[in-house]
Amino acid sequence: MTERIQNFLASRRHDGPCLVVDLDVVRENYNAFAKALPDTRVFYAVKANPEPKVLKLLADLGSCFDTASVVEIKLALEAGATADRISFGNTIKKERDIATARALGVDLYAVDCKEEVEKIARVAPGARVFARILCDGSGAEWPLSRKFGCVPEMAIDVLEHAHRLGLVAHGVSFHVGSQQRDPAMWDGALASAAMIFHTLADRGIQLAMVNLGGGFPTRYLKEIPGVESYGSAIFNALRKHFGNQLPETIIEPGRGMVGNAGIIRSEVVLISKKSDAEDDARWVYLDIGKFGGLAETMDEAIRYPIKTARDGSAMVPCVLAGPTCDSADVLYEKDPYFLPVSLEIGDLVLIEATGAYTTTYSAVAFNGFPPLETIVI
Questions:
Q1: Per the UniProt record, which residue ranges are transmembrane (predicted)?
Q2: Do 76 and 59 belong together in one domain?
Q3: Would the pTM of this model clear 0.85, i.e. be above it?
């Protein structure tokens, strides 16, 4: 927790869960990415945290933006980005949304099939497209597989089809999985990208760009390599597979940009047991759960650091759950959290490293609970 967040929370009345984001941390993270990969453009993944003040800061720093919808495109433009700094990175787009994006000036689009190419060719003639390929997400705590991308061999046909329809076959993209703790995972994906570049070059189509995707982690309970380790591993893999003919590269950090910049303050609503058995686990219910912004606790994939004012006293295993009337709203049960035995109803709980993928997962009014409040300092 930063001193700025600590001071803010100490002075603010508690009235429901809230996320507090420290812009100084976001600035530090952006500068770290820019230093680790100096020849690579940063396209911040807006879906990680679309808070306007976060976007404004990043736009002022020179960041570009990876967007998933027309709403996100407009948010990036309102933050000060120009259209040439925006990518429509979702491979699943309505044709009318592509037309709107093009009218707003966006010229860079992700595809993973011929059908998507044809939509873009109809309403955004001459636009640049990059094909997303499937790749191994081993080592990622939140894998992104199957739904997006195609096998590398199909990507060749997709980009050739785009070229024939008058679009600019611009490049290749991939995603090695969110919260990827192994910097070596970019190597195999870059080998596939180089194969696509070389194959299409032989057919007279010159690609220019490799989108290295996101995947850059934030620290939860496990140690992670520093961003400089990712920069070094990626650069070495680029030289290995592309030699001296290095392509233009971009990255799409989301979690790695804002994850450690935010902390959620929550309250203990109830502490109980399901039986009188001595070894029965305590259930600790918070005023925030899966539907309030902690959706990434699904399958207990992301395990957030949790702090209380009573830390340091004896700890006991607890099942952690949210407040809603839905049995799926259990955060951690298979692998219970150890929390202070002295923890009481009404105590405040800090859930750290929650700056990414929390507010955007928060339901609007499930069970009547309001969406997660964001405060930027």
A1: none
A2: yes
A3: yes
